[in-house]
Every structure is written in C-alpha cells, then in structure tokens.
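forwarding from the other thread:

> can someone predict this with iron/sulfur cluster?

sure thing
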Amino acid sequence: MAKIRLPTMIKDVGSCIFKKPFTREYPAVKVQVPEGYRGRHTFDPEKCISCGLCERDCPAKAIELVEVSGKRMPKFYLDRCIFCYQCAESCPRDAIKLSTTFEMSTTEKKELLILPEEFISKQKVTTDEGK
Ligand code: SF4
Ligand code: SF4
C-alpha cells in the first residue's frame, strides 16, 4: 500500500487554500453558455406558415402541429426532444430558434410542453406595450 507522505500532503493542501476554486457558485452566479448552445426553443407565430416541415422532420416525434387562432402551429414536447434543432433547420421561415435557456429540469411533465400560445401572448404584450 502506498504511503502518504505528510510533508507533501501539507504542501498540497496549503497551495490549494490560496488557489481560485474550480467550482462555480451556481445558481447564485449565472453560468455563461457557449455560443451556439441549443437550449429551450423559441417560436415566432407571426412567421409560421403552418407548413408542417418541423413536425415531419423531427427525428424524436417531439413536435405536433396544433390549431391555435385558426392556424396550425408547433407544440413541442421537451421530454422527447433531443435538442438536435432539425426543426429550426427545416423551417423555411426561421420561425423556430434556439435559445440559451438551459434550466428546464422539473418533476412536472406538463412543464415540458411548449405551446404556441406562450409566444402569442408574449408578442401581444410586446405589441400592446409599443402602443
Ligand atoms: S430539436 Fe430536434 S428533437 Fe427537438 S423538437 Fe426540434 S427536431 Fe425535434
Ligand atoms: S416549419 Fe416553420 S413555418 Fe412550417 S409549421 Fe413549422 S414553425 Fe411553422
């Protein structure tokens, strides 16, 4: 069995005390995600033309087109999503974009749904604020 050499150990411990920690104080300090990070989807209902290409091309079957305000728009099931972003690639109108939002863990399955209404109401608020 290898012997622990006390002087070496004291030296190592001493040098570690004065080093900057390798860990981050998350969540108190926000983590900067790298460029191109594939986080939670964002969706622009105004741009969507209901073509269904996002639903067709999703390899994880994580998109379903649903009817909202007389138009068919994607509903995302994040519990199935593999964050490949094929949907954004396939969309001819750039209506689906990635975001840097990565904090999605939950014990509630319904919180892993992204409904088009979420973005319709956001756009309405933005438009109303601009009046
Ligand atoms: S990121 Fe990939 S898996 Fe997720 S909804 Fe888009 S196409 Fe489907
Ligand atoms: S591919 Fe784009 S335009 Fe077509 S239904 Fe999906 S989000 Fe809408």
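The first helix runs from residue 6 to 17. thats all i got for now
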